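Subject: design request, 202 residues
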């Protein structure tokens, strides 16, 4: 079994349309670690030693968050700046995360076709996630295409939250149980509940 930790970051949870449901799912999955970053660090006083030990104790690190101004919520960036230290995560002797995996579960307010060269966002979604992908690479971690819900603000009225949340459960359980096909996922830009590469019967 893979040791999976989910870092949930949403600074305005009471206004959440989808992430609260995903967080409930993650908290309900046995055998994984769930961290509500804004609840644990409301003043951004991140415990570096604690977080580095969490990383060492897990094989797969998944960040769940809504896309904020084409990036992560600010606490995730602060966490990266402090926790991923030179000599620990990268640089001379900084190989403590080598071989681990980074995953993302994100919601985007815009529809999928907005994240194209001809759409109003002008770039594919993965372009906005390049800093995270490169961070994983610098830390010698494998980066997995993100699990994404597009048009998330409209999702509740369209009945898309529950299928997406159930897919999230399937994803988390498959990663935990070594049934997620990471190699197959690498050929995709993003993942949805309809395109999860699960190894059945493993």
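Subject: RE: design request

Done. Sequence follows.
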């Amino acid at each position: 079994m893979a040791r999976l930790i989910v870092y949930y970051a949403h600074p305005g949870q009471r206004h959440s349309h989808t992430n609260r449901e995903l967080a409930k799912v993650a908290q309900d999955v046995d055998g994984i670690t769930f961290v509500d970053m804004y609840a644990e660090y409301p003043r951004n006083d991140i415990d570096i030693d604690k977080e580095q030990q969490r990383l060492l104790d897990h094989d797969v690190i998944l960040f769940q968050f809504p896309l904020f101004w084409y990036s992560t919520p600010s606490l995730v960036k602060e966490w990266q700046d402090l926790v991923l230290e030179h000599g620990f995560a990268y640089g001379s002797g900084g190989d403590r995360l080598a071989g681990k995996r980074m995953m993302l579960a994100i919601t985007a307010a815009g529809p999928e076709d907005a994240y194209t060269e001809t759409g109003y966002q002008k770039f594919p979604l993965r372009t906005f996630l390049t800093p995270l992908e490169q961070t994983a690479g610098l830390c010698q971690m494998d980066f997995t295409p993100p699990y994404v819900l597009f048009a998330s603000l409209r999702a509740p009225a369209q009945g898309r939250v529950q299928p997406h949340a159930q897919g999230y459960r399937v994803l988390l359980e498959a990663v935990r149980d070594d049934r997620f096909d990471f190699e197959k996922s690498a050929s995709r830009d993003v993942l949805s509940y309809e395109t999860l590469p699960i190894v059945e019967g493993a």
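The domain at 4-185 is CATH 3.40.50.360 (Rossmann fold).
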